[in-house]
């Protein structure tokens, strides 16, 4: 400590006179101090950053678990892997198929999750078999706190999470008052008796060994005054403290102090307040702190650098134990509580590498907040709990990165100078509209342009399912069994003669609607588009959620108008949701600076097409995966239900693959920003990325089955004629809307009766003759 020589030569009388002069000066500056405090009261959250969080990890019995990703999630959240049979808060142990996790409590939207030990047992298919607490009681679910995605940079370089005094545990309040201001609730801002006592102690020691500033004075000094030490500043500090005590209650002052104190440094940002410090050191909400952790935080106040448990754990432990001893001596804790807390390890949150994921998505959410709440939305200390599933986001980013690198290794020409090959991926819950994963490009650091949302590119054949919806859900008379002409087609348009061709340049004569969609044949589906009409196709696309400019021209049926990957994925999601279009959602809830709910997710949407019509298209797109352009997914190892469609534009500029399981819609686009050719179809460039993400998201066997609605009819159809199968002509099962299946049969006995009805007239006649002859022979015998 620095010695103060002049203290040795001062008498007690002189010091008391000095104290009196200080007190007299208070009255002279009280009015100015009061005005200053009134002007700034309640502004402690103006430098509080907004925080974007991923959705909490929640597992239910029966849920599939990727064990590698669960371990990565725990690591990213700062949980420490241990081998001991005893698992404390912030630790986890894995033994075979059993995971024991000391879950931290966290403030979720609308409630406080208390955390606690949870034992997660998996079966041999890596699905959750059971969840129990430390006592063996069954738990309905397993949850982990949400992970921070991003907190935008601030000019103040201050990081804090404001807390209410009611949320601060009594152990922390007692520890802070014990070491910082034991007479806080007795003095009026300046503790004269403490000043006298500190002065006497310093004189006797010949150096400064004891401070006299109260909590109120510390708050004034840290909040309103500069760090420059002068006699005038000390007078202003005391005066403002006195005014502060007059205008505000003790609890208000203590709450402000607990939110203001500096406690740590996190890179370029200063950690202020016990709310943020609790998360920084222990990874938990301040309300969940135990006695030992409370004593540690209180002890740090005196010297955040000297007593940092991260840099100086032994000094921090000694300081913590000193605080615990003071609490015991004042009989604020029992001897048993003291012994338990002194023996407790520091149990700090594991420091993991800062890997911020979902940056494209965070920018998208931030833009939505600015649009809905104004320019100051990002400076109000909000906590935004987004819909992003961090496990799926990790799988999406890995799939894009690895997929592009593999393409460039296989096709070195794709390594363009200055214009890298790009990709975008979107995954959403079709039933709720929640965006679960979003990748807007291969490297956010290189380009912040979000291609998943803002890029407008021609979808090519990936647009054909929308044409199918327009044709199959209307009164145009089309069914999946309708024969279509696959023959040369020429159409006069204002732009000239339009002559669509199939991808292989071949014509097949006659194909069914199903085959045309499964094999992505351009000419037959162009004919469907002409008969349905471009205007109806535009209307259908709008109802499915596709925005942007859609030109009602014949080539629209083959994907000539530009759309975004997000919009096209959302349109496919309507089919997965059986015709229900859910409004897109990016946030589950937004909490205010003190944890109050500002807004909360409400599911909304509308039915835009019938469930039966949606199922017809799903059935055909399942065929595209099993027999058409999506069959490469099967060779990648995916065995579950999936409906999907590839897309390739002219000169191979854009490669698409869009598809859905019963509970997940996924869209992938691959291309160059400047529109140069990729040289690969969607099944060659986008499908591998889609497949890698799909396997990581739902596993080899998917997340459920597609079930036909009750009003779907299944009829055996001859694929060559499109007529009902019968004796002499075998068929294949096809699905139809009620009353749309063909009545005519391909069987040789099918004929018209005299009354005009169609039926088995010839067959029935021969059958009657046979049985009549058989009856006569039996009678003769």
Verbal overview:
- By secondary structure, the protein is an alpha+beta fold.
- The protein is built from 23 helices and 32 strands.
- The protein has a five-stranded mixed beta sheet with strand order 11-1-15-23-24, with helices on one face.
- A hairpin with a 2-residue loop joins strand 6 and strand 7.
Keywords:
781 residues; alpha+beta; 32 strands; 17% strand; elongated; disordered N terminus
C-alpha-based Rg, rounded: 36 Å
Broad shape: elongated
Distance N to C terminus: 130 Å
How many E-type strands? 32
Mean pLDDT: 86
For the biggest sheet, the summary is: 5 strands, mixed
Helix content: 25-40%
- What are the low-pLDDT stretches, counting only 5+ consecutive residues below 50? 1-10, 751-762
Topology:
Elements (H helix, E strand, L loop, with lengths): L11 H29 L10 E3 L3 E3 L7 H10 L3 E2 L9 E5 L2 E6 L2 E3 L2 E3 L2 E7 L5 E6 L8 E3 L3 E3 L7 E2 L10 H11 L11 H14 L9 H10 L6 H17 L2 H11 L1 E5 L2 E4 L1 H9 L8 H10 L12 H17 L5 H9 L15 H15 L9 E4 L3 H21 L11 E7 L6 E5 L24 H9 L10 E4 L4 E3 L2 E3 L10 E4 H6 L3 H11 L1 H10 L21 H12 L3 E3 L4 E5 L5 E4 L4 E3 L3 H16 L5 H4 L7 E6 L5 E8 L2 E8 L10 H4 L1 H12 L14 E5 L14 E5 L14 E2 L5 E2 L1 H20 L1
Parallel strand pairs: 1-15, 3-4, 12-14
Antiparallel strand pairs: 1-11, 2-10, 4-5, 5-8, 6-7, 8-9, 13-14, 15-23, 16-17, 16-28, 18-21, 19-20, 22-25, 23-24, 26-27, 27-28, 29-30, 31-32
Helix pairs in contact: 1-4, 1-6, 3-9, 3-10, 5-6, 5-7, 9-10, 10-11, 13-22, 14-16, 14-17, 14-19
Brief rundown of the structure:
This protein is an alpha+beta fold.
């Amino acid at each position: 400590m620095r010695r103060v020589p002049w203290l040795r030569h001062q008498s007690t009388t002189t010091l008391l006179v000095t104290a009196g002069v200080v007190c007299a000066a208070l009255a002279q500056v009280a009015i100015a101090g009061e005005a200053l405090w009134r002007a700034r009261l309640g502004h402690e959250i103006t430098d509080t950053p907004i925080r974007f969080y991923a959705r909490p990890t929640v597992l239910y019995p029966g849920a599939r678990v990727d064990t590698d990703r669960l371990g990565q999630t725990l690591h990213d959240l700062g949980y420490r892997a241990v081998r001991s049979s005893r698992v404390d808060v912030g630790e986890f142990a894995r033994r075979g198929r059993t995971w024991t996790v000391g879950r931290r409590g966290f403030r979720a939207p609308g409630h406080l999750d208390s955390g606690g030990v949870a034992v997660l047992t998996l079966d041999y298919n890596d699905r959750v078999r059971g969840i129990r607490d430390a006592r063996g009681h069954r738990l309905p679910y397993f949850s982990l706190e949400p992970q921070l995605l991003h907190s935008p940079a601030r000019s103040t370089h201050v990081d804090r999470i404001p807390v209410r005094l009611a949320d601060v545990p009594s152990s922390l309040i007692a520890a802070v008052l014990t070491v910082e201001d034991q007479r806080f609730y007795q003095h009026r801002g300046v503790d004269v008796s403490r000043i006298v006592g500190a002065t006497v102690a310093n004189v006797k020691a010949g150096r400064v060994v004891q401070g006299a500033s109260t909590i109120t004075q510390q708050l004034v000094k840290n909040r309103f005054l500069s760090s420059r030490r002068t006699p005038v500043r000390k007078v202003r500090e005391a005066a403002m403290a006195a005014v502060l005590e007059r205008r505000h209650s003790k609890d208000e002052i203590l709450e402000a102090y607990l939110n203001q104190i500096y406690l740590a440094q996190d890179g370029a940002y200063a950690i202020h307040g016990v709310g943020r410090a609790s998360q920084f050191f222990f990874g938990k909400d301040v309300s969940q702190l135990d006695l030992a952790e409370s004593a540690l935080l209180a002890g740090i106040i005196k010297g955040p650098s000297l007593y940092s448990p991260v840099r100086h754990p032994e000094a921090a432990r000694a300081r913590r134990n000193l605080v615990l001893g003071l609490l015991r001596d004042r009989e604020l804790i029992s001897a048993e509580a003291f012994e338990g807390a002194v023996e407790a390890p520091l149990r700090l949150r594991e420091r993991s590498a800062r890997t911020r994921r979902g940056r494209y998505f965070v920018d998208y959410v931030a833009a939505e907040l600015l649009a809905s709440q104004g320019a100051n939305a990002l400076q109000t200390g909000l906590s935004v709990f987004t819909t992003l599933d961090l496990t799926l986001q990790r799988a999406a980013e890995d799939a894009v990165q690895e997929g592009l690198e593999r393409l460039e290794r296989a096709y070195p020409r794709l390594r363009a100078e200055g214009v890298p090959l790009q990709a975008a991926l979107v995954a959403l819950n079709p039933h709720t509209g929640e965006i679960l994963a979003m990748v807007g490009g291969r490297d956010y650091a290189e380009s912040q342009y979000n291609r998943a949302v803002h890029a407008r590119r021609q979808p090519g054949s990936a647009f054909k399912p929308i044409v199918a919806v327009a044709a199959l859900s209307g009164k145009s008379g089309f069914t999946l069994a309708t024969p279509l002409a696959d023959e040369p087609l020429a159409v006069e348009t204002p732009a000239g003669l339009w002559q669509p061709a199939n991808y292989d340049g071949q014509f097949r004569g006659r194909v069914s609607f199903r085959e045309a969609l499964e094999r992505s044949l351009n000419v037959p589906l162009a004919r469907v588009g002409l008969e349905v009409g471009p205007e109806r196709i535009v209307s259908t696309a709008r109802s499915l959620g596709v925005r942007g400019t859609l030109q009602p021209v014949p080539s629209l049926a083959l994907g000539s108008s530009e759309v975004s990957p997000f919009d096209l994925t959302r349109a496919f999601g309507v089919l997965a949701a059986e015709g229900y279009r859910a409004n897109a959602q990016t946030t589950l809830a937004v909490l205010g600076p003190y944890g109050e709910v500002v807004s909360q997710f409400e599911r909304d949407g509308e039915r835009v097409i019938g469930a039966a019509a949606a199922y017809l298209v799903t059935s055909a797109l399942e065929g595209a995966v099993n027999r058409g352009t999506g069959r490469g997914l099967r060779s990648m190892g995916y065995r579950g239900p999936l409906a999907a469609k590839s897309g390739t534009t002219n000169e191979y500029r854009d490669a698409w693959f869009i598809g859905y399981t019963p509970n997940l819609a996924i869209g992938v686009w691959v291309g160059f920003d400047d529109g140069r050719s990729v040289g690969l179809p969607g099944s060659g460039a986008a499908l591998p990325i889609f497949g890698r993400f799909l396997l990581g998201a739902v596993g080899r066997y998917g997340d459920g089955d597609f079930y036909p609605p009750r009003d779907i009819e299944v009829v055996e159809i001859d694929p060559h004629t499109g007529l009902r199968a019968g004796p002499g002509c075998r068929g294949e099962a096809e699905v139809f809307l009620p009353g749309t299946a063909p009545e005519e049969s391909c069987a040789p006995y099918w004929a018209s009766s005299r009354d005009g009805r169609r039926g088995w007239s010839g067959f029935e006649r021969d059958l009657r003759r046979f049985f009549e002859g058989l009856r006569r022979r039996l009678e003769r015998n």
